[in-house]
Structure formats: structure tokens, C-alpha cells
Specification:
Layout (H helix, E strand, L loop, with lengths): L1 H38 L2 E6 L6 H9 L4 E5 L3 H6 L5 H16 L46 H8 L5 H8 L3 E6 L9 H5 L5 E7 L2 H9 L6 H8 L11 H21 L3 H4 L2 E5 H6 L1 H12 L5 H10 L17 H5 L2 H4 L2 H10 L1 H7 L7 H5 L10 H7 L3
Helix pairs in contact: 8-10, 10-18
């Protein structure tokens, strides 16, 4: 009897040893998985529309030494199919972005001339610090702010395969894109297990966007025609800018509403940012962006952000991100856009303005009164996406 009890005790102790061993084994695997998960590249899509400050937000990411950044890679798709429509091109753009996020640059074969290519074949490649600095282009240290003006003549002749090498050498891949008018096409990217996608959705006061688009009509002509699509020939030329804005405004509302229908785990990968909030508090909002995607706000970047938002210029060029008075730029429409245009635009974009917290003006006097704050804490910003 005693031997039987001792045998049962021994069996019990052995079983406990096995359980502990299994726990230690599984725990090791779990920690290994967590370490591997933490080493996964982070993919960030800066989603916006034309003339909304997206080039600046792209540079906030692109100047970080841990980031590989490309500006509007879908430009190549749209410029290949200039007679198409935005909705018909959504899938092609989505597939291109997925390949670029995974550092597979062969996707550009469909949109570039055959034969040997340079990295300068990419649209606005010089806006990418990663393509202008070591180890890709040794003229610029990787931990310093790069200058597109200086990069362009020095690094343009590097072979195209260096783009893929640069992409794979960074922990974060950030793409800035303005050629999505719907979130539906992006659903597969959000749920793709090979991606770790975060979306930064940048919006701007439609009145400021309209004013800026008026100054860049020629640069945006092809894009505007693709946005208008089959309606282009049916709309009077003088009405086309308003119709394009109506489509753009609706797209922002649709994107936010679509995000709200997603599971909470996917909603946490989305951040809504108003350009006006960014220029009013550039350091705080940049810190918020970096925290969202897991980047450190390095001291030299803090200095750069402070300086680049407190210049004297008004930023006239469509793609340049130079020092300017960012707050002044954000309000330029209030003294330069006729009230008749403002009134019509408010009619066309009223829902989006209310939804995103942009207050309407009811007279020329209100428009010109700069002491009148036209930003509100919208229901969307207050309830869902505003960071405390």
C-alpha cells in the first residue's frame, strides 16, 4: 500500500515537472514571437487629398532615420491611364501600394518604360531622405535632414534596384497618397497578415484646399480630370473646380464613416489629423504621429519641425516643403478668396465641414475677422479619434 502511494506521488510530481517544462517552452516561444512581432516592419499610409498639407506630413515621417518614405507612388498608375477614372484605378493603386510596402519594386515595371532605370525614375524620389542618404547615397548622413534641392543632382543616377535595398533597410515604410477616394479598396491591406498597416488620414479646411488648388490648376489638371471621370464633359468648365471639391469632401466623410464600421482592433490603426491642428501645435501633433506608429521624436527632428513651421514664406510650389509660416498659410483663404466662392464651396462641402469641425462663415466680415476661430471640436474628433 505504501509503495502504491509513493508511486502515485512520484507520478504526480513527474506530471508537474512536465507541465512546468511545457510552460517554460511555450513561454519562450511566446516571447520569441513577441520579439519577432516587434521587429516586423511598420507600414504607414498617409491618406489625404491634393493641397491638404500631405507633403509636409510626409516629410515629418520621411526625415526620420528609421523611415523609408515614398511620395505618391500611385502617380505612376494615374499617369499611365490618364483617360480612366479614380474608381476604376483604385484596385491597381492598392496592389501597387501593397507591393511597395513589401519592398517589391518590380511592381513599377507595369508603369515605367522597359530597360535600365535610375532611382530618379520614381515620382518625386528626391523627397525621400532614405534615397538621399547613406548607405544608398553617401553624400548625406542618414541622421541629418536631407535637402531635395541638393540631393537631386548628386543622387539621381543611382540604379533603380537601390530603391528596394533602401526600403528593406528601414523599420518603417511610409507612403503618402492622395489618389484614394474610398476606403473599401484598402480593406484587404488592413487585414493582410503580411502587412502591419497604420493609416494617418489628413484633412484640411475645404476653403483652404480650394484656394490652394486655384494656384496649382495646371499641375493638377490631369488628376482633376480623373477625379471628375465621366462627368467631365457634362460639367461647365467654371463649375469643375467646385464639383471636384464636392467629390473630395464626400470622400473624406465616407472614409471616416467606413472606419467606424470596422472592428475596434482595426480602428486603432487609424488616426485622423486636421492640418490646422498640426500647424497650431506642430511639436505636440508630430509627437502624436510618431507615437501612433512607434517612432522616437529625436532632438534634431524637433528642431527641424519647429523651424520649418515658423518661416516667412507662403509655400507656393505644389510639392516643396520649405520653411514657411504654416499657421499663416492655413488661414490665407480668409483674405484671398472672394466670399462668393467661399459661400458656394460651403454649400458643396457643408456636410464634410460640419463632420470634421470646420465652422462656416456667413458674411465677408466674418470671413475677414481673424480673431474668429473657425475650428471646433467635431463630434468625430471628440468621440472617436481625438487623443487625450
Amino acid at each position: 500500500m505504501m509503495l502504491f502511494k509513493k508511486g502515485r506521488l512520484l507520478a504526480f510530481l513527474c506530471s508537474q515537472v512536465i507541465v512546468v517544462a511545457l510552460f517554460v517552452h511555450m513561454s519562450g516561444h511566446r516571447h520569441l514571437f513577441q520579439r519577432e512581432e516587434s521587429r516586423r516592419p511598420v507600414h504607414v499610409l498617409v491618406l489625404s487629398s491634393w493641397r491638404s498639407g500631405s507633403s509636409f506630413v510626409g516629410q515629418l515621417f520621411g526625415q526620420h532615420p528609421d523611415v523609408f518614405y515614398l511620395m505618391e507612388p500611385a502617380w505612376h498608375v494615374w499617369m499611365t491611364f490618364t483617360s480612366s477614372t479614380a474608381w476604376k484605378l483604385h484596385m491597381a493603386v492598392r496592389d501597387l501600394l501593397r507591393s511597395v510596402f513589401l519592398c517589391d519594386m518590380s511592381v513599377f515595371d507595369a508603369y515605367m518604360n522597359p530597360g535600365p532605370r535610375k532611382q530618379s525614375s520614381l515620382f518625386q524620389w528626391e523627397q525621400s531622405r532614405a534615397l538621399c542618404s547613406s548607405p544608398i547615397c553617401d553624400f548625406f548622413p542618414a541622421d541629418q535632414i536631407s535637402s531635395p534641392k541638393h540631393c537631386k543632382p548628386l543622387c539621381s543616377q543611382l540604379p533603380f534596384d537601390m530603391v528596394e535595398k533602401a526600403c528593406r533597410s528601414h523599420s518603417h515604410v511610409v507612403l503618402k497618397e492622395v489618389r484614394f477616394l474610398s476606403l473599401q479598396a484598402l480593406y484587404p491591406l488592413l487585414t493582410d497578415p503580411s502587412l502591419n498597416l497604420h493609416i494617418v488620414h489628413l484633412v484640411r479646411d475645404p476653403r483652404a484646399v480650394f484656394r490652394s488648388r486655384e494656384h496649382t490648376t495646371a499641375e493638377l489638371m490631369i488628376d482633376s480630370h480623373i477625379v471628375l471621370g465621366q462627368n467631365l464633359k457634362m460639367i461647365k468648365e467654371e463649375d469643375q473646380p467646385y464639383y471636384a471639391m464636392k467629390i473630395i469632401c464626400k470622400s473624406h466623410v465616407d472614409i471616416v464613416k467606413a472606419i467606424q464600421t470596422l472592428p475596434e482592433v482595426l480602428q486603432r490603426r487609424y488616426l485622423l489629423l486636421r492640418y490646422e491642428d498640426l500647424v497650431r501645435a506642430p511639436l505636440a501633433q508630430t509627437s502624436r504621429l510618431y507615437k501612433f506608429v512607434g517612432l522616437d521624436f529625436l532632438p534634431h527632428l524637433q528642431t527641424w519641425v519647429h523651424n520649418v513651421t515658423r518661416g516667412k514664406g507662403m509655400g507656393q510650389h505644389a510639392f516643396h516643403t520649405n520653411a514657411r509660416d504654416a499657421l499663416n498659410v492655413s488661414q490665407a483663404w480668409r483674405w484671398s478668396l472672394p466670399y462668393t466662392k467661399v459661400s458656394q464651396l460651403q454649400d458643396d462641402c457643408g456636410e464634410a465641414m460640419d463632420f470634421l469641425g470646420y465652422l462656416q462663415v456667413r458674411s465677408q466680415q466674418e470671413q475677414g475677422n481673424l480673431s474668429l476661430n473657425l475650428l471646433s471640436s467635431s463630434r468625430i474628433l471628440g468621440q472617436v479619434f481625438q487623443e487625450g
